[in-house]
Amino acid sequence: MSNDPIVIQHSASGAKCIAYPYGATITSFETSEKHQVLFVSQLAKRDGSKAIRGGIPLVFPQFGQPNKDMPQHGFLRCNYWTPGKIFDNESEAGCEFSLDLKNVIHGRGSDGKWSLDSSQQSGLNVTVTLVVKITSNTLSTTCHFTNTGNIPFEYQTLFHTYYKVHGSTALQPDCCNVQGFKGYQVYDQITKEHLVQDEERIIIDREVDRIYTPPASVNNANVTISTGSDRSKVSMNAFAKMDGKDIPVSCVVWNPFVDKAKAMADFGDDEYHEMICIEPGILSGKDVMEVGQRVEFTQIISVLDQV
Ligand code: BG6
């Protein structure tokens, strides 16, 4: 399978995005002002031997590895997708990627789930497309999932977005922080504690691996992220619908910090200074996609004007 990068150029503005067929992983988004939004590790594999460490890997149908027969974070990020035709018009440029289950060679699981050919009309089956669109300062990604099998299934899905923190300042609270989750429920995946977020800002001062779940009245994830000593900021808005009805979107905030950075073979020992992951997702673990149902999940990243 070819893993030649797909380059999406928005001629009208000069913005540019690069995505790999492997995982349909976007690895670069440069605004019309040549501002790079995404982080990719120097040690990331781009040869299809491992999910790409950086950019926007896609997580589905599981977050982490509750099903040990399937790889961590599921099978979207470690299989080859088919890119469609690139479009480039006055208002936006983009490309659609699709993944057919019959092309999924890695990690559907050996437990009989997700193992049927898509031409068969029984068992677990899903069609997935990713639509990528850029304008001068926005990158939007929408995943469409349809349950095309004849069994309902539980699923989780995330955009595992790695933001570049300019000037290697991820540990400097004024340069790198996330705002917008005040009042959210927090589950700390390291300490296993449940808390409520009462501070305005989330900062990186240790290994951070937390799930932020919205209060009952909120469906969208909507945050502002400070991304470095250049005073750059992005806004991230994520929302999801099941057959047109809103589904609440949670969000993971992750930075591996010292020890975990050293333990990862495809991540530089000091690179935790250069990134922060903000990963919106449908995460309850109880969300079910009924037969024939369709889920649409969107993340919109906009680079805000520097002040
Ligand atoms: C995050 C998880 O989403 O992904 C972390 O919350 C995990 O627990 C991280 O370490 C990276 O996962 P992976 O599989 O890409 O190393």
Describe this structure in words.
There is one protein chain. This protein has 307 residues and is mainly beta. It has one domain (6-167, 230-303): Beta-galactosidase, Chain A, domain 5 (Distorted Sandwich). Helices cover 2% and strands 40% of the residues. It has 1 helix and 24 strands. The strands form 4 sheets. Strands 5, 6, 7, 8, 9, 13, 16, 18, 19, 20 and 24 form an 11-stranded antiparallel β-sheet that branches. It is globular. The relative contact order is 0.17. The protein binds 6-O-phosphono-beta-D-glucopyranose.
The rounded distance between the terminal residues' Cα atoms is: 45 Å
Q: How many β-strand runs?
A: 24
In the CATH hierarchy, the third-tier topology is known as Beta-galactosidase, Chain A, domain 5
**Which blocks of ≥5 consecutive residues have pLDDT under 50?**
116-121
Largest sheet: 11 strands, antiparallel
Shape: globular
Q: What's the oligomerization state?
A: single chain
- Share of β-strand residues: 35-45%
